[in-house]
Design a protein that fits this description.
By secondary structure, this protein is an alpha+beta fold. The protein folds into 2 domains: 156 residues, no CATH class; 67 residues. Helix 4 packs antiparallel against helix 5. The longest helix is centred in the middle third of the chain and has 34 residues.
């Protein structure tokens, strides 16, 4: 069953308060319990359900990426895009140089008049104009390559795979522990909305920071230490999601 909710009952009601929602007793209770691999339903309303996932062992990075890429359209850094952007900047610089050469050659041509240098000046104008056109085309191509549109068939296939594996997940958010010598010092920030998924760096774990970089307030230090486990510190996965049933 898909969620059946009248839009007028959830849009522009003025009733939502982030502060009250973040302090919800049920929400905090579910997030605070169960350090094992568990899913906990937080109730159903209008065909909607929520769940929490927690685990105190790291994700295998390659397996996690393969899982997410199979079921979501990933919004992630792509060094191919970075190279295309660098290409666009180089082409733009080439265009600026070629344009300057056109103006310099045109000025020389005007000074030469019918002198023997006129043919060389005309050749320089033509060459600079060709270079400017080529640089302009390269800039457009690089910018186009840096922002490819998602393939509709691929998006549909991932939606079908996601629905078959997990049901209708509308939103998920949290943080994760990803294995690896460098990754293990930083938590991964997880966020999905519909078929889009973003997994990026959410900052360092407290276990990897020197004590002088921790908060100085005693209550905050106590809360941090309460989240520690032997050998792993505060590293673990914890996130919540919501979807239709």
């Amino acid at each position: 069953m898909r969620a059946q909710v009248e839009l007028s009952s959830v849009i522009n009601t003025g009733r939502f308060s982030f502060e009250r929602a973040s302090q919800s007793a049920g929400w905090l209770d579910v997030l605070s319990h169960g350090h094992a691999h568990v899913s906990s339903c937080m109730g159903q309303s209008g065909g909607m359900g929520s769940f929490v996932y927690t685990a105190r062992r790291p994700f295998h990075p390659a397996r996690l990426h393969a899982l997410l890429a199979r079921h979501f359209t990933l919004q992630e850094p792509d060094w191919g895009f970075a190279r295309a952007d660098a290409g666009a900047k180089a082409a733009a610089a080439h265009l600026a140089r070629a344009s300057a050469a056109v103006h310099a050659a045109a000025a020389a041509l005007a000074r030469c008049g019918a002198s023997p240098q006129a043919a060389a000046a005309r050749g320089a104008v033509a060459a600079a104009a060709d270079a400017a056109a080529a640089a302009s085309a390269a800039t457009a191509a690089a910018r186009s390559a840096a922002a490819p549109a998602p393939d509709a068939d691929d998006v549909a296939a991932k939606a079908a795979a996601r629905g078959a594996a997990f049901g209708q997940i509308l939103r998920s958010k949290g943080f994760a522990w990803v294995a690896g010598a460098l990754r293990t010092e930083h938590c991964a920030e997880w966020s999905s909305a519909g078929g889009l998924m973003r997994l990026g760096t959410g900052g360092p774990w407290f276990a990897g920071l020197p004590r002088e970089s921790w908060p100085h307030e005693a209550d905050k230090v106590a809360a941090i230490e309460a989240d520690f486990a032997p050998g792993i510190g505060d590293r673990w996965e914890r996130g919540a999601g919501a979807g239709g049933t």
